[in-house]
Amino acid sequence: QSKQAMQVGTAHSDPNPNHIYFNSRGIWMTYIIFILIAHFIILSIPFISVGLAWTLTCQVHNFITYLWLHWEKGAPFEPLDQGESRTLTHWEQLDDGVQFTANKKFLLVVPTVVFLLATFYSRYDQIHFIANALSLVVLSIAPKLPMFYRVRLFGINKW
Fold first, then answer.
1. Where are the transmembrane segments (predicted)?
2. I need a surface site. Which of 90, 98, 106, 155 has the fewest CB within 10 A?
3. Count of CB atoms within 10 A of residue 38's CB?
4. Residue 94, SS3?
5. How far apart are CA 120 and CA 91, in angstroms?
6. What is the pLDDT of residues 45-74, one digit of tens each?
């Protein structure tokens, strides 16, 4: 449960809107549309096959979401949480840190579906499969596991 405080002149009552913005109406569909737009942009590049386009979509998606959810810390605005979110990644702030919410399950399922699409459209090519599987596990699944909550491996990204 998030601490609520009365804030005169603000549009929300949450000290850190990073906790709840992913509950906004239409955000899941917008996220999927962005993935599809990126895929169609990659697919429009000459000499790129459909399988390679899906592999690149998978790689780019996993890298960008890793940076967005698991590398960047703090908030893109000045939160009113007295600096509590300053050292937390976006994933750690999402849904006020509660594990296995609908949003967090969605953010686990989407990269898996993109991986399956990339595997299928690359016709189960071994090189594509290994690249996509490594990207999926290292960048999209492992950082989301509860055992890595607030953990900085080897002190990387600690501050």
1. 28-54, 106-124, 130-149
2. 155
3. 16
4. helix
5. 29
6. 999 999 999 999 999 999 999 999 888 877
Residue 102 sits at the vertex; the CA angle it makes with 98 and 108, to the nearest 5 degrees, is 90
The alpha carbon dihedral of 112, 116, 119, 121 has a sign of: negative
CB-CB contact of 51 with 121 (8 Å): yes
Judged against a pLDDT cut of 60, whether residue 3 lies above it is answered with no
Please check whether residue 75 is in contact with residue 85, taking contact to mean a CB–CB distance below 8 angstroms.
yes
Looking at residue 11, its pLDDT comes to 55
**pLDDT value of residue 62:** 97
Pick the closest to residue 94 from 10, 153, 19 (CA basis). Answer: 19
Q: Residue 55, by phi and psi: left (phi above 0), alpha (psi -120 to 50) or beta?
A: alpha
pLDDT at residue 42, rounded to an integer: 97
Give the C-alpha separation, 146 to 115, whole Å: 22
- ∠ CA(142), CA(59), CA(55), 5° rounding? 125
